Amino acid sequence: MKKYFLKGLDCPACAIKIENGLKTALSDETISINFTYKTVTLKSEQYKDAKHIIKKLDPDVELIDLSKKEVDIDDSVNTKFEFTKILIALMLFTISLFYKSKLSAYPLFEYTAFLTPYFIIGYPVILKAAKNIKNKQIFDENFLILIATIGAIAIKELPEAVAVMLFYNVGEYLQNLAVGRSRKSIKNLLNLKPETVNIIKNDTYITVTPEEVKIGDIILVKPGEKIPLDGVVVEGSSFVNTSALTGEFVPKRVKAGEDILSGMINESGLLKIKVTKEYKDSTIAKILELVEEASSRKSKTEQFITKFARYYTPFVVFTALFIAFIPPIILPNQTYANWIYRALILLVISCPCALVISIPLSYFSGIGKSAKNGILVKGSNYLEALTDTEVVAFDKTGTLTKGVFKINRIVTKNGASEDEILKYAAYAEINSNHPVAEVIVKSFGQPIDKSKIESFEEIKGYGLKAVVNGKTILVGNDGLMHMKGIPHDDCDVEHSVVYVAVDGKFLGYILIDDEIKEESLQVVNKLKQVGVNKVIMLTGDNFNAAKKIADKLNIDEFYAGLLPQDKVDKLKEIKDKLSEKQRVVFAGDGINDAPVIALSDIGIAMGGVGSDAAIEAADIVIMDDNPLAIPKAIKIAKHTKKIAKENIIFSLSVKGIFIILGIFGVATMWEAVFADVGVALLAILNSLRIFTYKT
After folding, report:
1. Residue limits of the HMA domain (predicted)?
2. What's the rounded Cα separation, in Å, for the pair 313 and 483?
């Protein structure tokens, strides 16, 4: 899928019309439009057909390939010109109203006086409606406003006709300003990308854009500047602010030889950094891409509004036709002019703009708010699904615990010494990247001659097998010993146990400790506060070590000694006990737990900073390793859905009231257009409240 720019897209109803048209014409339900960014996501081979379809659906919208650098995507509205046009029309309209009683004696002058501001303010609407009619595209807001105002002119309600056209345009102007501000707010919220980068070449500094920097280039980052690209510090030391990535301000010291990620802010020292990734592959590029693309995965509420808008406007138009012509026929002493006027009120109030812009904007704001807190949500559907979370299941190691291991003690058997056990274990573990392997090798503390290692095999879920100097070494869990038929002690201890055997002989075991994260002590209580019914822990560790952690954290249920496939089976069992609406969240490291993350309703990868695998595996990525981000994400999701529901109820209620008032002849066209514009603006402003929500 590829992203294209929609130049000239200026109304949410048009976005829905184009999206539905593309889906139908190209038979592809994956096509999605992001009105906030004015982009459409579709397959590259669909580009030519899509360009033609869009031009037919809306002649003023142009599909632009963003990969072509020479294209012009400047789509800013000339707000000064629009404001001046509105002001002139308003002045002329006010003058015409003031002299209306005198002008009524001279119809030609009256029509000229009122139609002049009408055409000044309304000609773009008239032209667009005419183009759409030519392309057989009706039932859009331009067509409705044109029909409503022409109808008003036909029944000699000139002030109403001008008022509807004028205030509709005022509403569009204010709406564009509000959407522009919201778009700017979201971009500022995720303002991670620096505009320029200082490259060091031949002892001089060259200023370029981040996209121009190549792997291996040395860049200079001064105090107060953002780190523009991922790399390794080659000179200097400093404290960096990671809040833009993780949502929490925790100063981190970096020095020569250490990795550093784009998006961090250099707080103190001067840093020279060797670039290891191009901008398009950098951490901030991935974050910004994830947030922007999240809108393509729409929530059920957004999908409902899209379908609703497809039928709502035609329904109101046909209802208006019925109201205009049937009552005068069947009711005594009724005039067509009176009922046509009532029908025109329905046309004015029928535009679903308040819904089709505020609902996606609510979810997009929720995704932006989450990202600011170090929580990357890959779609509105996942954000909405979080609100129905019934069970949260955690992996233990590295999720609830720090994953920073230390050896508690070594227990020897069959005449082996502690040094001997540690040496064999270190030789077997040297080629593994597991955290337990790292602590064993580090504790051994001696150089390892890798030439002595003849073979190495990782037995997934059990441990390792290595042949060293002709000896077969097995290092792993209790299951590995049973698999290989090696008699051994059954350890009933509150530690992680690493068994060691050589040439079929059991030598003993190493007891490993892991430290619980401080945040984990609060996570169960916080999850219960946001409505989670049950918290579960799934771990491959032994029963006693798992029970020790579960008891300390007040976890409802735990399951120990699980292989990766066992975790999948257990999660299936948990899901089968829930209703169709209830959701299971699983949080793990995003790499080792990929199968169970994929099976869960919402998979969360912890510690996603710099981990491509974690970002790829999960539906939600927590950029640091703080489990408290999960209840925070649920709170943001619930607040977002609450605001979306408020907008739906408020918009439909006001529109419903004015439809009833219009039918019974109580409301005027003036009031109807004010209501329509007001509802849209209030719904947009309500959506933006998500940014101020305290988590």
Report:
1. 1-62
2. 67
**Is 60 exceeded by the pLDDT of residue 610?**
no
- Quote the mean pLDDT of the chain: 86
* 293: Cα separation from own chain's centroid: 7
CA distance 399 to 422: 27
CATH number corresponding to 2-76: 3.30.70.100
Q: How far, in Å, CA of 120 to CA of 579, rounded?
A: 58
Element (H, E) at 271: strand 271-275
Q: Which two tokens stand for residue 179?
A: 């959407």
Dist. CA 652–CA 443, nearest whole Å: 67
Q: Is 388 left (phi over 0), alpha (psi -120 to 50) or beta?
A: alpha
Considering the chain, tell me which residue range(s) the CATH 2.70.150.10 domain(s) occupy.
Answer: 214-277
Instruction: Based on DSSP, count helices (H) and strands (E) in the chain, helices before strands.
Output: 24, 26
Q: Measure Cα distances from 111 to 95, 102, 160, 164, 340 in Å.
A: 13, 12, 13, 16, 20
Q: What kind and span of H or E run contains 12?
A: helix 12-26
pLDDT tens, residue by residue, 287-315: 777 777 776 677 888 888 877 877 777 88
Average the pLDDT over each of 212-216, 291-295, 341-345 and give the range with the smallest value: 291-295
DSSP annotation of 590 reads: S
Q: Is 341 exposed, middle or buried (0-12, 13-18, 19+ CB in 10 A)?
A: buried
Round to whole Å and give the CA distance between 128 and 107: 29
Q: Are 34 and 296 a contacting pair, CB within 8 Å?
A: yes
Cα 286 to Cα 289: distance, rounded to the nearest angstrom: 5
DSSP letter for 201, please: E
What is the C-alpha radius of gyration for the chain, rounded to an integer number of angstroms? 32
Q: Does domain 402-515 have CATH number 3.40.1110.10?
A: yes
For residue 590, pLDDT beyond 60: no
Q: What is the pTM (predicted TM-score) of this model? A: 0.78
- C-alpha to C-alpha distance for 675 and 652, rounded to whole angstroms: 11
The Cα 125–Cα 331 span in angstroms is 35
| SS3 state at 175 | helix
Which residues in the chain are classed under CATH 3.30.70.100? 2-76
Dump the DSSP string for 323-386.
Answer: HHHSHHHHSTT--HHHHHHHHHHHHHHT--HHHHHHHHHHHHHHHHHHHHTTEEES-HHHHHHH
Residue 555: the pLDDT is 95
Beta pairing, strands 271-275 & 463-468: unpaired
Hey, how many other C-beta atoms are within 10 angstroms of the C-beta on 442?
Answer: 12
Single-letter code of the amino acid located at 648: I
* Closest among 201, 207, 273, 203 to 238, alpha carbons compared: 273
* Alpha carbon separation from 539 to 262, 461, 564, 567 (Å, rounded): 33, 11, 9, 8
Q: Where are the alpha helices (DSSP H) in 216-279?
A: 243-246
Judged by average pLDDT, the poorest of 65-79, 95-109, 145-159, 578-592 is 65-79
pLDDT at 591: 56
Domain 375-400+517-623: CATH class, spelled out: alpha beta
Percent over 90 (pLDDT), the chain: 38
**Can you give the pLDDT at residue 625?**
81
The span from the CA of 648 to the CA of 641, in Å, is 11
Structure tokens belonging to residue 496 = 């992680």
| Residue pair 645/362 in contact by the 8 Å Cβ criterion | no
**Residue among 184, 164, 83, 146 nearest 677 (CA):** 164
Q: Which option is the CATH number for 214-277: 3.40.50.300, 3.30.450.20, 1.10.443.10, 2.70.150.10?
A: 2.70.150.10
According to the model, what pLDDT value does residue 419 have?
92
User: How do beta strands 265-266 and 238-241 pair?
Assistant: antiparallel
Q: Which residues are catalytic?
A: 395
Residue of higher predicted confidence among 522 and 317: 522
Q: Where in the chain are all domains bearing CATH 3.40.1110.10?
A: 402-515
